[in-house]
Design brief:
This protein has 155 residues and is α+β, with helices and mostly antiparallel strands. It has a single domain (6-152), classed as Hotdog Thioesterase (Thiol Ester Dehydrase, Chain A, Roll). The protein is 26% helix and 32% strand. The protein contains 5 helices and 5 strands, in the order βααααββββα. It has helices spanning 24-34, 38-41, 43-48, 58-72, 148-152; strands at 12-21, 87-90, 99-111, 118-128, 134-145. Strands 1-3-4-5-2 form a 5-stranded antiparallel beta sheet, with helices on one face. The longest helix has 15 residues, at 58-72. The chain is elongated. The two termini are 29 Å apart.
């Protein structure tokens, strides 16, 4: 399998990944372990919440997005890690039975000034349900190795 390098990430739509089916059981299991709020664990309490029904934790959704990113392309990228996440916005609830797709756009790609053998690619990832409703947007940079020839051409 080909390793993706910095030069493979031009600004614009990079790809769409999924679908990923989300079950009630995994929503409950994640919530019980990591985010035990009533709207994630209890149908009755969730129906009285502003979410109007059982919903997955936003952190569960972020974890699912990360899995989809890794399965989609990160695991075959010359990634050197990330300095963090710039922004996460939860826009609509994750529901049991949702079929998630992930749209990934490159919003910026630049060569690192301090380490020219790497580049910094900033991605905007949007998780959507089967109806096309945006559930979460995440903006995050990734440090990615450059092709050997691209670095040598700079010297």
């Amino acid at each position: 399998m080909t390793t993706l390098t910095f030069e493979d990430f031009a600004p614009g739509r990079f790809g769409s990944f999924g679908p990923r089916h989300v079950t009630r059981e995994e929503i409950l299991a994640f919530a019980a372990e990591f985010d035990p709020q009533p709207m994630h664990l209890d149908e009755t309490a969730a129906s009285r919440s502003m979410l109007k029904g059982l919903s997955g934790s936003g952190w569960h959704l972020c974890s699912l997005m990360m899995r989809m990113l890794c399965d989609g392309f990160v695991d075959r990228t010359a990634s050197l890690g990330s300095p963090g996440v710039n922004e996460v916005r939860w826009l609509a609830p994750l529901r049991p039975g949702d079929e998630l797709t992930l749209e990934v756009d490159v919003i910026e790609a630049r060569v690192s000034r301090s380490r020219p053998e790497t580049g910094i690619v900033t991605f905007k990832s949007t998780a959507r349900n089967a109806a096309g409703e945006a559930l979460c947007e995440m903006i995050s940079p990734m440090i990615i190795g450059r092709r050997t020839g691209a670095v040598e051409g700079m010297r």
